[in-house]
Amino acid sequence: MRFLIRKYRSDDAAATLAAFRRSVVGLASHDYDPEQIRTWAGQAGDLRQWDERRSSADTWVAVPEGNANALAGFIDVDGNGYIDMLFVDPDYARCGAASALLARVARRAAEQGAGELSVHTSITARPFFERRGFRVVQVRHPMIEGMSFVNYLMIRP
Known about the structure:
Blueprint: E1 3-7, H1 13-26, H2 34-42, H3 47-56, E2 58-64, E3 73-77, E4 82-83, E5 86-88, H4 97-111, E6 117-122, H5 126-131, E7 135-140, E8 143-144, E9 147-148, E10 151-156
Parallel strand pairs: 4-6
Antiparallel strand pairs: 1-2, 2-3, 3-5, 6-10, 7-10, 8-9
Helix pairs in contact: 1-2
C-alpha cells in the first residue's frame, strides 16, 4: 500500500487521537496489561490539548493513496532527531505506513542537522525500530499516573 505523507493540520486532530488510542488498545495490549492500556490510552488529554501538542511539534501524517478521508498514522520529530510519537491505526498496521512516516522524519532530521534519531519506544514497537537500525541503549521504567511501564531508549545514527 502507498501513502501520502504530509504535514499535520488541526483538522487531523480527531483522526490522529483516534489512531493513537486504537493503536494502544489494539496493538500494545499484547504487551501491556489492561490497567496499563487504560492509563496509556487515557493520558492523551482532550482534543484541544491533543491538537495543541501535535501543532507545536513537527508532526506528519500518513494518508492512504486514493483515500484522502482516511488517516493511517502519524509521527513527529524535533530538531535533535527525537521522535516523540509514532502511531499507526491497527487497520493499517504492517502496510508500510510506519516505515513511510519514519523515512520522512529521518530526512527532516537530517535536513535540520541532527546526527541521530532517538525514540522512547514501547515493547510493541521495539522490533519495528530494531529492523530499521535502531539499537537499545537503555531500558526505562517511566511512570504514568503512578503506574510503571517498560520502554526503551533507542538510537540510530
